[in-house]
Amino acid sequence: MAYKATQHEAVTWIPRPVERKTVSLKMKPEFYEEVMEYCQSNEISFSQFARFALARTMANA
Fold it and tell me: Taking the model in full, what pTM does it have?
C-alpha cells in the first residue's frame, strides 16, 4: 500500500474516465455482409448499428 510522505495516510487512486472505449469482436464473413447490407439500406454506420443492437438486447434482458 502506498502512503503519503507527510501524514502516513493511505493513498486512494481514482481512475480517470476514458473518453473513448474500443470494442472488438469476431464474426463470420456472412454475418458481416448481412450487417453491412442492413447498415447501407438504413443509412447508418456500423458503430450506430452496434449501439442499437446492444441497447435493444439490454432492454430485452
Answer: 0.57
